[in-house]
Amino acid sequence: MHAQRIAIIGAGTAGLATASYLAKQQHDVTVFDQIPRQGPVGAGLLLQPSGQRVLADLGALDAIQQQGSRIDALHGVNHWRIPVLHLRYRDAAADAFGIGIHRAHLARELAAAAVAAGATIRYGATVSTLSDCTLEINEHQRQSFDAVIIANGTRSLLSNALRIPQRKAPYPWGALWAIVESEEWPERQRLLQRYRGARHMMGVLPTGLHPVTGRPCYSLFWSLPSSDYMRWRSEPFHRWQDQLQDFWPEAKPLIERMQADQVYWASYADIVMKRWHDQNRLCIGDAAHAMSPQLGQGVNLALQDAQVLSSVMQRSDNIGQAFAEYSRQRRRTLNFYQTASRWMTPLYQSTWPVGWLRDLSSLVSCHLPMVKTINLRVLCGGKVTEKAGAFSPEMVS
Ligand SMILES: Cc1cc2nc3c(=O)[nH]c(=O)nc-3n(C[C@H](O)[C@H](O)[C@H](O)COP(=O)(O)OP(=O)(O)OC[C@H]3O[C@@H](n4cnc5c(N)ncnc54)[C@H](O)[C@@H]3O)c2cc1C
Domains of the chain (ranges plus CATH)? Predict the structure, then answer.
């Protein structure tokens, strides 16, 4: 395809990875983001083998590995202290592992790769409306492109401009999270979770090196219904810390280091679109397929979106056709993860009395080799092949 002028709205994982790929193909790529600059903000993310493959392709994996924590297993224990989840990456493939990474490191490496490939990133540029391929930027500037890629995350309103049947629903649960530094926390290579029924869940993800201090850091997550968030804010912070320490006494060294002004609220949404392209406009990442966080795949799917788009662009000489082919190629994988996450959600975040069912099924599935293999493949981000329910054999190689 000859060089196209392409606007990408959003310098998150999806937008920056896509910018790298398309700039390498000699397209004239401009990324717009509302933030003034990339800063040391954000939570820890768990990069699966699927996402790592894309980062390797972009030349960013080595730096991410140096700044991240290697994760060998996910381990979940219920309030009776019975281990109900135990997934080891090496059971999927001898050399497979996850990487816990601070979002700031990932954004910085992806932005550097995009710029090195020739993309332009414009920070402080809020895109307020989209008409065909013309953007309105900061409410006074208009700029037209050959193609527009919408990658501005879960709260995107710009995707409404596409003529695509779509459904967006805020998810009734969210999570409080904090980044805590610690030299002593002993669990440096496992994502740990604690559950009480489906209502209470806490997690600790080793998150590599803190982007400011360079010390080892950890992401703490506490699940909460969105409707309880205002009540949580009005209560004394130490009361919540006491609640967490009762819930998970061994995590006390991390819990007591949390500062009230460094605990953030994350809300989620389900976004389902019938397809992701509308002529020369395409929607990717969370803006296209945000889902509940149960499967921890958002960032990995965003990276895969970029890689698939790169491959269809390379093989096509018409951008509209390339975008249509992208929708076709992504449908099965995205539908699979959206459906799986919707089914799993009430088992992890709900007021239903289903915690025992989740614990029992997790326990049993950890001991049934075939079910365990499927769980591992889903975790690793194995892509679903054209045959429904089947997984590609090379997915964690
Ligand atoms: C607390 C938390 C923990 C998570 N943990 C994990 C995990 O462990 N593993 C995992 O795979 N996923 C995780 N996720 C999900 C993951 O972060 C997202 O799926 C992923 O970041 C999606 O990337 P994106 O590029 O689509 O969107 P984003 O990263 O949200 O980027 C969107 C960008 O668009 C910009 N923008 C928005 N509106 C405009 C506008 N109008 N004009 C210009 N710019 C705009 C924003 O400033 C932002 O930079 C987590 C999410 C949260 C909140």
Answer: 5-41+104-169+270-380 (3.50.50.60)
